[in-house]
Structure formats: C-alpha cells, structure tokens
Amino acid sequence: MSLFNVAGKVVLVTGSTRGIGLAIASRMAEGGARVVISSRSQEDCDRVAAVINAAAGTALPIACNINDSTQLRQLVASAVAQLGRIDVLVCNAALNPYFGTSQDISDEAFDKMLSANIGSVHRLCQLVLPDMAAAGGGSVILVSSIAGLKGSRMLGTYGVTKAASMQMARNLAVEGGAANIRVNCIAPGLVRTEFARALWDNPQLLAETVAHYPLGRIGEPEDIAGAAIFLASDAGSFITGQTIVIDGGATIAS
User: Fold this and answer.
1) Structurally, how many domains does the chain consist of?
2) Residues 63-85, mean pLDDT to the nearest whole number
3) How many CB atoms are located within 10 Å of the residue 82 CB?
4) Is residue 57 part of a domain?
5) 115-174 pLDDT, tens per residue?
6) Is a pLDDT exceeding 70 seen at residue 254?
C-alpha cells in the first residue's frame, strides 16, 4: 500500500543484527528501503547484509560501537557517503549490563548504560538531524521499553534510560517539527530476544508473566517491525513526540 510505502528511503538501524533491530531492518528492506545494518561486529553486519542483498534488498553493513563517539560519526558519514542521505533513523541499540536494585549498581555500569542508551541517541540525532532538515524532513524512531513507564525492583536504571528516551522524543519533536522531522518512540513489552533472555528463558517465570497478559503471550521481534514501518511512512505523517506501546496489553493489565 502506498500509505505504508518505504521504497527508496535510506534507513539507518542501530543494533540491527539480531532481535528487534534485525526485524525492523529486514522488513524495511522487504518494503524497498535501502538499509544500513549496524552493530559492534563487522562480521555480524556482513552476514545480515548478505542475507538481505541475496533476497534482492539493499543493505550496507557498517560496524559501530554506540559508546564510541568517533565510531558514531564514522557510521553516519559512511552511510551518507555511500547512500546519499538518511531519511529514517532507528535508534534501537541499547545495553543492560546490570540486573538488580538501583542502590547496588556500580558507577561503571550506571555510566555505561546511560552513555549507550541515552548518550548515543543524543549524539546520533545531533549528527543526522541537520542534514535531514536540509533535505526536507524525515523520521526518527527511538526504541524504548515499557520499563520506562513503571517502577522496577531489578531494572530500575534501565527503566530510567528508557523513560529518558521518551522525553528525548518529545523534545526533539518540538525542535524538529518546523523542519518536518518527526520523532517518536516505540515501547515494546517483553519480546523474545537474546537481550531479554533472562526474562523469558525460565518456563515457570514465563508462564507466570504471560498469565497476566491479555494476549497470553510475549512478543516476537516481528511484532515490533510493523510499527516502525508505520512511523517511517506517510501513514505516520501526522504523528510526532509520541510513544507507541506494543506489549500485548501488559501495562494495562498489570
């Protein structure tokens, strides 16, 4: 459908070699977008790009450590040099190196999480938005989490970073609106990814968790990709500064 058309758009997706990022990048490419595949490992980026290109898509693999400002600059510069522009920025990469109370987290883990989950998004937007504005606009999608909507005994710091990403979307939406730049968040619930394995790999814990979900299951990466396409396309052209919750009803029922 033309309303959801992403053909020809250049889409940069961080953390796109597995999980939610991979699902978003693959579906964007399937829709005709030219996608930039990025994660820490060049080998993983090459592998994913090869699969997409073999399926008649267009994928450019560029490795990047999101906690390295120099590599972030190189990521954006290389994407623009090879593909001409960035129409859609999907900030999906994130870290959660700590599972425990906020009182017990080390300074090192705290600083690393904030730098990756908030600092990298801030820096990427500083790098991408000026050219996006000069080109007439674009879409920025921040992958947040329902952890940013409620308190947590064991994921508190991670939740703080995800709440901050929702506020960052609101701020950047206000700043970029006059340049036709839309900035939104997607807040997934529990999704079956390696990143969240500790939360779903225990059968008893999983059963207890989904017992409270109206849809009776956790999410799959593909469940998140459609919302990203919606926000990247003309279908989402009047949506900015918002957080779309995709959690199988977890937050309304718990």
Assistant:
1) 1
2) 98
3) 12
4) yes
5) 999 999 999 999 999 999 999 999 999 999 999 999 999 899 999 999 999 999 999 999
6) no
- Residue 213 appears among annotated catalytic residues: no
The torsion defined by the Cα of 105, 96, 205 and 223, in degrees rounded to 10, comes to: 150
In a domain, 211, yes or no: no
- Among candidate residues 158, 185, 213, 219, the one labeled active-site is 158
Looking at residue 108, its pLDDT comes to 95
Q: Does residue 117 contact residue 66 with C-beta atoms inside 8 Å?
A: no
Q: How far from chain centre, in Å, is Cα 143? A: 3
- pTM to 2 decimal places: 0.96
Instruction: Kindly state whether residue 160 falls inside one of the protein's structural domains.
Output: yes
pLDDT at 44: 98
Which CATH number is 32's domain given?
Answer: 3.40.50.720
Provide the residue range defining the domain that includes 56: 2-192+221-249
DSSP class per residue in the chain: -GGG--TT-EEEEET-SSHHHHHHHHHHHHTT-EEEEE-S-HHHHHHHHHHHHHTT-EEEE----TT-HHHHHHHHHHHHHHHS--SEEEE--------B-TTT--HHHHHHHHIIIIIHHHHHHHHHHHHHHHTT-EEEEEE--GGGSS--SSBHHHHHHHHHHHHHHHHHHHHHGGGTEEEEEEEE-SB-SSTTHHHHSSHHHHHHHHTT-TTSS-B-THHHHHHHHHHHSGGGTT--S-EEEESTTHHHH-
